[in-house]
Amino acid sequence: MFDSAIKYTLHSFRDRIVSLFCVISLVIVLFAGHIGAQTVATYGFEDGTPDGWSSFNGASTPVATNTAAHSGSFSLLTTTSSTGAGGPSILVSRVLLAGAKYTITGFVQLTPGETATNANFTMKRSDPSCSGGTCYDTIGTYQVPVSNSGWAQIGGSYTVSTTETGLQLYAQLVGPTTAQSFYLDDVVITETAPPPGGTPIATYTFADGGLDGWAPFGSVSLSNAAPPVLDPNGDQQALLTTNRTAGFMGPSLNLLSVPNVVAGATYQVSAYVLLAAPDNSSPTATISTKTTDCASSGAFGNIATSGPLSSTVWTKVQGTLSFSNLPGPPTGLTLYFQSSSATDSFYISDVVIGELSPPPPNPSQQDNTGITSTFEDGGLDGWSSRTGNSTVANSTAAAHSGTHSLLTTGRTANYDGPQINVSNKMYSGSRYNISAWVMLVRTDDSNHVINMSLQTTLDGNTSFPSITSYPGITVPADGNWHQISVIGYNMASSYDPGTAFLYLQTVPPSGADLVSFYVDDFQLSYVPPPTIQTNIPSIYKTLSEFFPVGAEIDTTDLSGPHAQLLTMHFDSIVSGNDMKWSSVEDTKGTYTYGNADSEVRLAVCNGMKIRGHNLVWATGAQTPAYATGDGTNSPANQAVVTANIQEHIQSEVQHFGSNVYVWDVVNELLDPSQPDCLAHGPFYNVLGKSYIDIALQAAREYAPAGTKLFINDYSTTDPNRLACLVQVVGDLRSRGIPLDGVGHEMHNAINYPSTEAMVKAIDTVAEKFSGIEQQITEMDMSVYNAGDATSNYGNDIPPSVLAEQGWLYAHYFEALRRLRGKLSAVTFWGFADDDTWLDGFPVARTDYPLPFDMGLQAKPAYWGIVDRTQLPGFGLRFSASTTEGERHTSTLTITATNGSVGPAYTTQISGIKLTQLFGPRCSPQITAPGSFPIVLGDIATSGTVSAAFSINIVGCHPDSIFLLSVPWRSAVYHTGTFETILDFKRNGK
C-alpha cells in the first residue's frame, strides 16, 4: 500500500480511503485545523452497506438496515453471540494516529422487544506495553443505558497510545447473557489534538535502499547504507552523505514536492544524525532551509542545531518550520542538513515532518459569533479561576449594567485572575475588538495596572501574548467602573484544541498585587477584514510624472487588504521601526533582520523603491545603550563609539545592499538652541559633530555605489531650523563629507505650517546648494491644531474637519507638483488612519492624518491628493444681483450655490469691495448684514444660501459701472474671489 521506505500519513480523502479499503463514508476535512477539532471519519451507512464494519467476538455479521435510523434512512444491525458478547467492529489503525487525541461517538438503540441494558464503545489495542500484548480500553462511560424506545449516545474521548501496533473499535452491550440485537448509527471520529510532534505528514526511513527523493546540496555524494548503529527506532538503513568539502553541504529535500506541506502551517521537523567516523572536535548538525521567490534567489534560515554528534550514538535534532506565500509563493523551498564540520561524513535517519498547526481557516469557516458576558443569569458565563486558588463568583454587590457582575477574590498571585476559554472564538490571522469593564474593590484609591492577556499552547509550548499594550491599563481602586478596550487586536497565536484562554491579571512594578476586582459587560467581537476600493485612481500613478510616492509600513501591512492598498497606491516604502539600530542589532554583533527583510521582499516583488530609515539617530532614540559605550568623551570611548558606528552601518547597509536606494544616515540632528545648530545627544557628547562625519563616511564606504546618503529632520519649515539645516549642510559640504540629500519630515498640523512655508524650505535648500537632493520623508497631517494636546474627536470626527484636511492636502500637492526637479520623492508616514503614530503623540487620542480612513477607504485627504474635483464643496460658485430700494439705495444679494460632490462646509464671505470702472467718481457705501466674515454655514449638495447687502449710491451717476469683488472661503482652505460687473442702472444684470 505504501512504499516501505517512505511512509506518508496524509490528511487527505484519497489516502484514508486507500488505508481503509472498504470505508465508503469516510470523511476527511482538510486543514480544519488544530485550532478547531478535525473530523477524520464518519460512518452513517447511508449507502446500504456496513461501511467496512465486521463481526467481533462471535456476534453476527453486521448488515445495513433501513428498519431504524438515528439520522437519514439506514443504520447498522448486529446480534450478539448466544452469551450476549460481541458486536460490530472496525479496524482504525490507519485512521487514528499514535499519540493523538480523539472523540469517538455513536448512537445505539435496541431492536423491538429487547430488554433494556447498557452499551459502550471499546478499543481493542495491540500494544507491547499491555499484559499479553493486548489491552481493552473503554471509550467514555462504561455503562450507558440503552433501550428499544430511543437512541442513546455512547463514546467519549480517547488518547491513542504511542506504542500501539493495532486498533480495533467495537460497540458492545454490557450485561446481557443471551443474544440481543441492536442498531448502531452516526459514528463520528474527531481528532481534537495531534500527536506529539504534530500530525505526521511524511516519514523517511530509507528502508527500501533508495534515496527517497533526497538530493545533494552542494557537491556531495548520497547513498543508502547500513549504519554501524541502528537508530532508536531500529531502522536498518539510513542516508549517508560523503565527499563534503564545505559546512553547508549535505542531503536536501524539496519540500514543495512533499504532499500537504502548505504555506501558513507550522511543522515540526525531527531527525537522527550519526557521524560516519569519530571526530573529537564535537561537530554539530543543523537543519536549514533555502527559499527562492520573487524577492530572492536564495534566502537561508536555520530550523534547529543539534548537540555534539557522535559516531556511536545517534543524536536527535528537532525544530519548527513554517513558510509564507508572501510576498509571493516560493518557487523553491529546500530543506537540507549541514554541519559545523566541513568534511565529516554523516548519516541521517528517521526524518519526520509533522504538522503542529494548520494554516488559519478562511474567515468564512470560523465561528465569528464572539463572546458576550453580562452575568445576568446568575452564572459565570464560562469564566473560571485561572489557577483554581482564587474564587470567581457571580455577584450582585456591584454591576456596570444590570444587577450582576463577576467578582474575583482570594487571589494568590499577580497572574491569578478570571479567565475564559476563547478556543474556536479567536483565530490566528483575524482581528478582534475586546472590551471589559473593571471595578477594583475599593481600598485607598491607589492605582493598579490591569492587564488583559492570552494563554495559548501549541505542541506543549505555552505563550502569554498581551492583548493590552504591556504592562496594561492603569485603574484606580476608587469604587468606579473603568473600561479596558482594545480595538482591532491582531490574533497572531496558533494553538492546540481548547488551549486558548483570555484572562485578566495585575502587573505591579514589583512584588504582588492581589487586589480583588469585578468584571462586567465583557465583549469579544470579530472584525471583518476591510475591502479596498479598486476603482479609484492610484496615488503613485497619478503623480508619477512628478515624483515617487511612498508609505511607512510595518509587518501588519504585508498581507491582506493593507498590502493590497499599499501596492496599489504607493511605489516606495520605508520601514517605520524595523531598520532602526535597536531593532536590527540590539545586542552588538547579533542581528535580527527578519521583519525588515519581509518588508523589503514585499517591495522587491512589487517593484517598489525602498528608503532606509535610519542608521544613526542623533538623540539616541531606539538605539541600544552599548552604541555610545560608557558615554564619556575619553579617547578610549571615542574609539569604541567610532567602531560601533562603523560596524553597525557596514553590517546593515551591506545586508540590504542595492535593494535600498537611499539611507537616512543621521536622523534628527538639528537643534537651533545650540550655537553649532546640532543636537547634543549621546553620540555628540562622545564625538562632537564628528559622529556625523563618521556615519556618512562609513555609509559611503560600505553602501553599494549609487546609494543616496541623506540627513533627515523635522520642522524644517520653522525659520530657525531651516537656517540651521542650511548651516549644517554647508559645513558638511565645505569639508568634503559625503552627503547626497536632505529629508524634510513634514509632520504637519491642520493649521500649521502653511503650504508656502513648505515650499520655502525646499526652495531655500535648492537655491543654496546645487546637487543636493530633497525628499519629503514623513508626511502626515494631524486634524488637531498645532500645540493642542487636549482635543480628541474619538471615533466621531466631524465631516467638516475631514473636508478641511482634504482641501489642505490639495494645496500641498498642487504646490509640490510645481517643485518638480527640486523634490525627488514624497513619503507618507503610514497610509491609513487605522495605524498612525499620532494616536499616541503628543497624547493618546484618535487622529486621522493619512489619505485613507480606518476602514481603508478613500477620504477627502486622498481626493485632495489625486483629484480635487471630488472634494466636498467642489463646484461652489457665487452670483450677484441688485434690486432698487428707496431713493439712492440698492440691495445687493450674493448667492452661493454648491456643486454636486458634497456639502460646502463653513462657507463664508470674507469681504466685499466695489471698484469703479466708469462714470464720475463716487463712493457707494456698503452695509453688510453683520460683521465680516459673513457666515453662510454648511451648504448642502446643490443647495444655495444668500446674503443681502445694502448699498447707498447717493452721488453716483446713473451710468456708473463698478467691479464687484467678493473673496470667500469654504472648509477653511477652499478659497476664491467672485467678481462681476455691477451697473446699478440695470440692477446688476
Brief summary of the model shown:
It is built from twelve helices and 53 strands.
Write up this protein.
With 989 residues, this protein is mainly beta. It has six domains: 6-193, Galactose-binding domain-like (Jelly Rolls, Sandwich); 199-357, Sandwich (Jelly Rolls), CATH 2.60.120.260; 367-527, Jelly Rolls, CATH 2.60.120.260; 547-558 and 746-869, TIM Barrel (Alpha-Beta Barrel), CATH 3.20.20; 571-589 and 599-720 and 727-738, TIM Barrel; 877-986, Immunoglobulin-like. Helix 6 packs parallel to helix 8 and helix 10 packs parallel to helix 11 (799-817).
Please give the order of strands in the largest beta sheet: 36-37-38-39-40-41-43-44
The helix content, as a percent range, equals: 10-25%
**What's the helix count?**
12
Largest sheet geometry: 8 strands, parallel, barrel
CATH topology of the largest domain: Jelly Rolls
Unreliable sequence segments: 1-36
Strand content: 35-45%
Distance, first to last CA:
98 Å
Radius of gyration: 37 Å
Mean pLDDT figure? 92
Structural class, from helix and strand content? mainly beta
At the first level of CATH, the class of the largest domain is Mainly Beta
Number of strands: 53
Overall geometry: globular
CATH architecture of the largest domain: Sandwich
By CATH's scheme, which homologous superfamily of the largest domain applies? Answer: Galactose-binding domain-like
Tally of discrete structural domains: 6
Biased composition (Polar residues): 364-375
Domain GH10: 533-868
Region (Disordered): 355-391
Protein name: Beta-xylanase
